[in-house]
Amino acid sequence: MTIRPCPICNAPASTKLEDYSRDHWSVEQCVDCGHVYLKNPPGYGALEQDFAWLKKTYVTEHERRLDESPVAYRLDVATRFRHTWFRKSTEDKYRAWFGGGKVLDIGCGGAQDRFDGFTLYGIEISKELAKRAHTNMRAQGGFCIFGPGATAIREFEPDFFDGIVMSSYLEHEEHPLTALQGAARALKPTGAIYVLVPNYGSVNRRVTGRKWVGFRYPDHVNYFTTADLDAIAKKAGLTVRLLNPIRLPFDDNINALLYRAA
């Protein structure tokens, strides 16, 4: 466990949000820029313990939501299929965002996907998943690096990738600015970075409070609004284009493409 300053502006001072903190996990708000984050994240070492730690947090979170909102949570689980309605496949999205070429998935899991016209690379902090991903990606000409995204991305050459995927990753990353700076360096000038993070600014979070689906203890360590994403992207030399601007106020996630600033 570590005590950290604001991951966006590096200010040390913050105010604890009692309603959103749980057990010994302290969710706090930066007094300078307003970003909300976990002050005392468990550290990379806990995440590297493969399935045991990840499964434990998943089960704990499942039990918490079931206990706090049994009817709503059961309904949400039973109707998860609704999230796939009218949505493009991952391959179609990659083609629309990146065109083709070399794509890096940070937090890639076991990396089962294969797409024509793409060479897939990965970074994965779970040792067991990284082994699986490496085997799968080697068959396509790519590979997977085991380690934290913020440091492992420096192992790639500058201007290497046509696309970088950060889907449900930045909220877990203890050093998100470092990760984005590394991504900007590894991205081709014409490339794009896809980001999906929980939307702390959503109406649903304001209504449901501590029961909001975006809270996960302790593996969600950053809680982004669109203003936060703009601010941290700018510091990394990137610009933001929202993919879901119309439904954003009521969407529990922010979907965006980031580009290298001119």
Explain this structure to me?
About 2% of the residues have low confidence. The chain is an alpha/beta fold and 262 residues long. A seven-stranded mixed beta sheet has the order 6-5-4-7-8-11-10, with helices on both faces. The protein has one domain: Rossmann fold (3-Layer(aba) Sandwich), CATH 3.40.50. Helix content is 32%, strand content 23%. The longest helix is centred in the N-terminal third of the chain and has 19 residues. α2 packs across α3. The chain is built from nine helices and eleven strands.
End-to-end Cα distance, whole Å, is 38 Å
Q: What fraction of residues sit in β-strands?
A: 15-25%
- CATH level 1 class label: Alpha Beta
User: What structural class should be given to the helix and strand makeup?
Assistant: alpha/beta
Major beta sheet, strand line-up: 6-5-4-7-8-11-10
CATH topology tier name: Rossmann fold
Quick gist of this model?
The protein is α/β, with parallel strands linked by helices and 262 residues long.
